[in-house]
Amino acid sequence: MKLYEELAKEIEGQVRRGVFRPGERVPSVRQTSQHRQISITTVLRAYLLLESKGIIQSRPQSGYFVRLGANDAAPVQELDVSKPIAVSAQVDVSRLVLSTLRSIGSDEAVPLGSPYPDPALFPFQKINRYAHAVGRRKTQWGVTDELPPGNPDLIRQIARRYLENGIAVDPNEIVVTVGATEAINLCLQAVAKPGDTVAVESPTFYAMLHAIERMGMRAIEVATHPREGIDLGALAQILDRRRIAACMVMPNFQNPLGFQMPDEKKRELVKLLVRHDVPVIENDVYHELYFGDVHPGALKNYDRKGLVLHCASFSKTLTSAYRIGWAMPGRYREQVEKLKFLNTLTTPSIPQLAIAEYLKQDGYEHHLRRLRKGFAQRARLMTAMVTRFFPEGTRVSHPMGGYVLWVELPRGVDSMQLYKLALEHGITVGPGYMFSTTNGYSHCIRLNYSYAWSPEIEHALATIGKLAAASLRQ
Asked: Domain HTH gntR-type spans what residues (predicted)?
């Protein structure tokens, strides 16, 4: 058990025994850090864990307090480490994902299965005004304005944002792309060829599987810890036994598990892959959506050999409508730029310039703080509702950032059947089949908690719980 887990367990026990009563303030983070001689980060992780379990709640400028009814709340069951069969497999999930996304896009449905954050949270009108202003200023546009690597103003703003978050990057390494999906595809194309095997987390985000499928490659799923990420021991065994062309991971707030890989483990992962000379594609689209006080590190921090191909975008933080992403491909930079030119030629200039203007002028950090706070609160709410409404034996993830919750239902529930039944009630969920090349997650679903909490969402969760329970009785 980790130190923060021990601390959380001890405080939870004190709440259960009535040492701290509902509504009472628990010791502050600094006080607990000083008295126990442990780091503030460790205490924060413990308190975040307690928040996710519904034991305590934070109040701005006041501290942490025991939630009403916390001493009789049902404990949230932990997910186990995934144990996929280490066999490389052909990938064929695109048709399932496409049909699922089409149904999720219905305006009438409660969008618990959506892969996108609530668009109402984005400053779309502000960015649109910048786009119109840019268009008025420049009446003549040419292809050369849009050629790789991208608009210099935007590239400069991206590099400055990384520096503000404690990550020094070379702006000359950045290649602007049409969203992170294109960045991932270009990076994979640069390091592997059809027929190659690529190592991925299990479960993994389906966009990674799409890239592998599109290029005629094979995926091998690696055991993954629900709080700390890919199992380095399992990955090391695979690397020793077979040729792996590349590794694809999401170290920060992985979709669908939501974990944040510890920095030491990030360092060890890069070291392991350097030893085997295997490039790693780092999908870091959620890196700005952290719940803690400190911006998470990236694999890129520990890359000294140019083997980390880092991909990100503004689609999850500013707007998905403009589809602006980027890659920092290390030693593969020239190849990625060439492939960008050959594949899509350009990235439209006006969206690049509009976002660059917003980043310079309009309080991006303030916007992000509001997003992070809202997502953290909604994550706790949805976890509490799932624990309340879903069948006994249900387990959930403990996201440290992002906006999705992974729910592992009892084995008797089939997520595709549940998806179809929920759709009949005007509710969407993300069936677990989309996140693997096997049926290992057929009893799991992914839920989106980014939307403002409402009676409709609470009713939808209660309905899903009833449908799941009914399928167990059949």
From this structure: 1-69
